[in-house]
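note to self — DONT lose this again. spent like an hour looking for the file last time. sequence + predicted structure for the chain T wanted, 566 res
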Amino acid sequence: MHPVLEDRRYLIPFRATLLSQIFTDVLVIGGGVAGYRAALSAAQHSEVIVAVKGGIKHSSTYWAQGGIAAAVDAGDSFDEHVRDTLVAGADLCDETVVRKTVEAGPACIDELIRWGMTFDISRNGDEGGAANAHMALGREGGHSCARILHADGDATGRVLAQTLDAQVRASDRIRVFEQCFVLDLVTLDGAPTRCVGAITHHPKYGLQVICARAVVLASGGCGQLYRESTNPSSATGDGLAMAYRAGAELADMAFMQFHPTTLYVAGAARSLITEAVRGEGAHLIDKNGYRFMPDYHEMAELAPRDIVARAILAQMAQTNTTHVYLDCRHLGSEQFAQRFPHIHDLLTKFEIDPGATPIPVHPSAHYMIGGVRTDLAGRTNITGLYACGEASCTGLHGANRLASNSLLEGLVFGRIVGDACREMMANGPTPPARVVSDIRPSDRLELDLDDVRSSLRSVMWRQVGIQRDGRRLTEVAESIDFWARYTLDKIFDDRAGWEVQNMLLVGALVTRAALWRAESRGTHFRMDAPEPDDAFAVHDLWQRGRDEPTTVVSIAGQGGAVTHAI
């Protein structure tokens, strides 16, 4: 990468002793399912601050439609859920992590119910004619049976976020700082490096340093790297970028998952059409009304997401169109509105009646499978820094996330990480930070930030998207280096500038990881290397200061490391 991508340790110049400093035991960065669950767990033993970039509605959790995967049905089993996860993960899942997560599922559901979350139920008549209530279970791609719990039809994420938010607000040991942009992790040099807090910016209070004995990174993903994305505008990869600048290892950054079905209306923002719609029997058809998924996979519309997304792309190319259609007409307008009320409301705004008209859809960037490498307790390679949720890489998802495993992961590892922070409390109070960041003004010309951001998102979608090619990836890497040369050398004083700098850094990492992985596996498809290659059945680790990735057999374990040159 261009040296400017590696040289900058902090985004801005500052002298910590001259800034306002706030002290806490545990700092959690991010207010989604993983961050809030970690805060609740850490509050059992410590004082906690949660720094949230926006508010509750700005997290990906809030907008999650599908549900939570958990083996709670008598006809299901942990072994089957584990098997489905491993198959979807294309030989890169860490089975120990998978089993740990799956087996914790029922307890997570029970806990949410105790906290007041109401899951949707179905009623079936028994032999005596009475109605028995059971939790309604949906089926999504890659699952061998129905095991997806949902709430308020297609608003599971919103209900979950509100449930956790109520618990967080009720705790007298947790403070939530909304509209708090975290620029960088503050570290102390040593062997090993130790994280002691973060530098933040708030519109009202300006720059501050939050000092903490333990820091939890739960900042979510980076879907806004792509022009077509289901993610909220806040998903600009800030946490991944700040972790890399601090020296944390990032793993499996090539694996961005693309959701097959987002609403396609020219000129409108992309909106997710949950996979649960296909679980209710909806078919994908092309402009000629032809149902094409059986041509691509035996599971048809319920094949894993990477297969469905590539099939849609192929069918679009064959028919020379910008989208395909999701045919839900078998459900009828009334039944669709009952099962998917919020999607129905959205479609109504565009005068689309799903009971009478197929829904125009195409794929969009959805979920970053890679992230900050952690062990089974959520520890990173930096002392005092933990990670969970989409910002982390535990080995659970392998090369392709099984549908609805992400909310489950946030619940499971949020609790684990919050508990693990206890080990840092024995270190005594965090001393005031005395870090100095000295950055000299640049004399290079300035590029238009909006243009850089737009150009980056466009080229990432076209060339680092669902289908990739080695030569094009090299060209993208060169383009990012050029933009970075005239953007990452600058000092900005607002969020827009910091976000673009973070996006360039994370975009460079995703592109180089995709270039290094000269094979097709899971979400990652290389047109110049269309088959999996056993030489790449490993996890690639990227760290500041290294020109090449290190590879390991296991994310959470101590798998033997070897080096592969790009």
